[in-house]
C-alpha cells in the first residue's frame, strides 16, 4: 500500500511537550495491473470466496491441529489471501480461528464455522502444490485473553507472542499526582481506498482525498490544550485550517527523494 498523511502537531520546547492534535491518512493498494506488468509471477490478491483459498486455510489449520497436543481450532473467517504460480498453484492465507468443540479424532469435520463466533487467534498458512508433492505451512498467534498456558500447546508450530493487548481508556487509568497533566487521544482517521484501477469515481476525486480541519475559520480558533500542562491554569493554542494545495510553496513539500510511479499519484 501507499498513501499520504496530514497531521497537526503541537510543540512547546520550554515545557518539553510534543503532542499530535489531529491526523488523517489515506491509503491505497498499489495497482495490481502495474505490478503484474512488472512481475507476472509475483503473488496477487485472491478472492476470499475462492474454494482454493478456503482449502488452503483448512489444510494449514489441520496441520496446526495435528501438532497441537490438546485444544483443537476451526476457521472463523479468512481475512486475506493471495496466489502465485511457482511449480504449481500456491495459495497464501490469513484467517481468524476459534476454539472448536470437536475432539482431536473429529478434527477432519471441524471446518468453516459461523463468522459471528468469537475469534481467539490469527493464523497465517500456505498451500503449495507441485507435480511431485504438496507443501503446507502454518503459524498462529493467540490474542491475549486466550493465550494458552505454558506447555499447553506445541511450540513447534510457532504460536508466537500474544496479540491485541488490552488498552485502558484514559478515564480508566489510575489517577496520578494531583498536579500531573491528563492525557487526551488525538483526533484522527485512516481511510482505505480501492486500487485506482478499480476506483469507479477516480475521475472526480483526488488520488488522496484528505481532510484535516479542526476548524474552518480562516482566522483560526482557540483550542484548549490545558490537559498538556500541570497546574490549574487554562492553556490554549490558535489553530488555523490546514493549508490547501494552492497555499503551499514550491519548496514545501519538496520533490520526492525517489520518484516511483507505483506509489506516487499520477
UniProtKB/TrEMBL annotation:
<protein>
    <submittedName>
        <fullName>Fetuin-B</fullName>
    </submittedName>
</protein>
<dbReference type="GO" id="GO:0004869">
    <property type="term" value="F:cysteine-type endopeptidase inhibitor activity"/>
</dbReference>
<keyword id="KW-0732">Signal</keyword>
<keyword id="KW-1015">Disulfide bond</keyword>
<feature type="region of interest" description="Disordered">
    <location>
        <begin position="169"/>
        <end position="210"/>
    </location>
</feature>
<dbReference type="InterPro" id="IPR000010">
    <property type="entry name" value="Cystatin_dom"/>
</dbReference>
<dbReference type="GO" id="GO:0005576">
    <property type="term" value="C:extracellular region"/>
</dbReference>
<dbReference type="Pfam" id="PF00031">
    <property type="entry name" value="Cystatin"/>
</dbReference>
<dbReference type="InterPro" id="IPR046350">
    <property type="entry name" value="Cystatin_sf"/>
</dbReference>
<dbReference type="InterPro" id="IPR025764">
    <property type="entry name" value="Cystatin_Fetuin_B"/>
</dbReference>
<keyword id="KW-0325">Glycoprotein</keyword>
<dbReference type="InterPro" id="IPR050735">
    <property type="entry name" value="Kininogen_Fetuin_HRG"/>
</dbReference>
<feature type="region of interest" description="Disordered">
    <location>
        <begin position="243"/>
        <end position="266"/>
    </location>
</feature>
<dbReference type="GO" id="GO:0008191">
    <property type="term" value="F:metalloendopeptidase inhibitor activity"/>
</dbReference>
<feature type="domain" description="Cystatin fetuin-B-type">
    <location>
        <begin position="37"/>
        <end position="141"/>
    </location>
</feature>
<dbReference type="GO" id="GO:0007339">
    <property type="term" value="P:binding of sperm to zona pellucida"/>
</dbReference>
Amino acid at each position: 500500500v501507499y498513501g499520504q498523511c496530514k497531521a497537526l502537531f503541537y510543540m512547546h520546547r520550554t515545557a518539553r511537550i510534543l503532542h499530535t492534535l489531529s491526523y488523517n491518512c489515506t491509503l491505497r493498494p498499489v495497482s495490481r495491473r502495474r505490478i503484474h506488468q512488472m512481475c507476472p509471477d509475483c503473488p496477487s490478491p485472491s478472492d476470499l470466496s475462492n474454494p482454493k483459498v478456503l482449502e488452503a486455510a483448512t489444510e494449514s489449520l489441520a496441520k496446526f491441529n495435528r501438532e497441537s497436543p490438546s485444544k483443537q481450532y476451526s476457521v472463523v473467517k479468512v481475512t486475506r489471501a493471495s496466489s502465485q504460480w511457482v511449480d504449481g498453484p500456491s495459495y497464501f492465507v490469513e484467517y481468524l480461528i476459534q476454539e472448536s468443540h470437536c475432539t482431536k479424532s473429529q478434527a477432519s469435520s471441524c471446518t468453516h464455522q459461523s463468522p459471528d463466533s468469537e475469534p481467539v487467534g490469527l493464523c497465517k498458512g500456505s498451500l503449495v502444490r507441485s507435480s511431485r508433492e504438496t507443501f503446507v505451512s502454518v503459524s498462529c498467534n493467540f490474542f491475549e485473553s486466550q493465550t494458552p498456558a505454558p506447555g499447553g500447546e506445541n511450540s513447534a508450530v510457532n504460536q508466537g507472542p500474544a496479540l491485541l493487548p488490552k488498552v485502558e481508556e484514559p478515564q480508566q487509568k489510575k489517577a496520578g499526582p494531583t498536579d500531573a497533566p491528563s492525557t487526551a487521544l488525538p483526533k484522527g482517521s485512516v481511510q482505505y481506498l480501492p486500487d485506482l484501477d478499480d476506483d469507479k469515481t477516480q475521475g472526480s476525486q483526488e488520488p488522496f482525498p484528505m481532510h484535516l480541519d479542526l476548524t474552518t475559520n480562516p482566522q483560526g480558533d482557540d483550542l484548549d490544550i490545558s490537559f498538556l500542562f500541570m497546574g490549574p491554569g487554562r492553556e490554549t493554542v490558535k489553530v488555523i485550517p490546514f493549508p490547501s494545495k494552492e497555499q503551499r510553496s514550491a519548496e514545501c513539500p519538496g520533490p520526492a527523494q525517489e520518484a516511483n510511479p507505483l506509489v506516487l499519484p499520477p
